[in-house]
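Bug report (template v2)

What were you trying to do?
Predict the complex of my protein with pyridoxal-5'-phosphate.

What happened?
Run completed; filing so the output is reviewed.

Input:
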Amino acid sequence: MSKNEMFRKIPNMNLLLKNEQMIELSEVYGRELIKEAINLELEKLRQMIAEDAAESELEAAVNGVTEKIAGTVRKLAGPDIHHVINGTGTILHTNLGRAPISEEHMRYLAEVACGYSNLEYDLEAGKRGERYSHFEELLCKITGAEAAMAVNNNASSVLLILSTLAKGGEAIVSRGELIEIGGKFRIPDVMEQSGATLVEVGTTNKTHPEDYEEAITEETKAILKVHTSNYRIVGFTQSVTAAELSPIAKAHDIPLIEDMGSGALIDLEQFGLHHEPTVQEAIRAGVDIVCFSGDKLLGGPQAGIIVGKKKYLAQLKKHPLTRALRIDKFTVTALELALREYQSEARAIQNIPVLRMIAKKTEELQKEARSLARKLRNVKIAAEISVIPCSSQIGGGSLPLEIIPSMAVAVRPERISVTEMERALHHARTPVFGRVVNDQFQLDLRTMDRKDYKTAVSEFAAVCGCRE
Ligand SMILES: *Cc1c(COP(=O)(O)O)cnc(C)c1O
């Protein structure tokens, strides 16, 4: 068959638009999207011919074109971002959206965001208010700080703090704390961006109080401590605590700043984890300005939270960058709701999803794993199913060495390889993420929600197939 003849096999737009399935799709998605999808799919057919596809290949593609168009229309109509099932056991998975937000909080948020709100209106005073007012007092009460505010994320907190307080001067940082967080966020780069000159003190493994003391000059505008949240130096090490640094900073009348990264507001030792310094401890130790993320251990929305002395926070609030980095009504609402829970530690552990996941007990996880395993066996999935112990991680650069014992359902597919299975699950309607270990696909129950089980079972069945 000549190419011209092959081109004639391609259906035409007008004919396709009269196809019953296309008419149905038009009613749902609108004619514009259907036409766009048809054009895209017809172009692929033309491309096949241009690339010398075999006749039989073209014929198969032409026969399947309406199905393809339907798929493309759905893709174009979106949304592209959607729920995925996290079976990796990494609680703060940056690629999967970090901290999940409480459903109850989201319902309240929908009410606030779908209409108007008192975002910047002080109802009691009957005049314009500050958007931080909804959670400032709360943050002060929880952390013991004098003042509080929040910006877009913690990287912006560091940028704002240094731009406001250290621009044109020097800021002292220990060499052991010059970290990269990931996503190219490096302390020396942020420092440069802020217009402050970095003065490094100490060595990678050891820094002493004198190192800071000796580095202070007329030009010194701040001392910055950075929590090395995503790695640990072990062995012959020494770092200077905030409590040791505070009198040094005070004696020279310069602010002591601490970037805490995760910003734990409750003690994690109660869950058998190592001690992660809390924001309250930093304030008690005399740190003047503390910043941390909203969507790491706090378990709230993406935000950079800043707490500390009133005189410094007042300067930050007036800086033009604050306007550029400001949080919107979604963040204000979700942050306030998350922080309200922290007024009672027990409530926080119960109602903040991140804390609830950390707190899950192995026995409870084992029950969940057995229940999911039973559901998979009930559909006669073509795979070997077992319940095994595994380890969860906090993730998000928090407590890097911490391994939390957990339970997983391990799936060993019979008809496809485990890598094929993983790939197919990533492309499922509700994508499923897990860990491939020893030729098994493992789902850690700690990061899964019970309402995900049914979906997970049907995605697994679709990917692995079922026995008669
Ligand atoms: C995670 C982290 C940041 C960046 O916080 P984002 O909220 O992701 O911008 C900054 N500093 C430290 C120490 C961190 O751990």
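What did the reviewer find?
The pocket of pyridoxal-5'-phosphate is lined by residues 153-155, 181, 185, 226-227, 229, 259, 261-262, 293, 304, 397 (CB under 6 Å). The mean pLDDT is 94.
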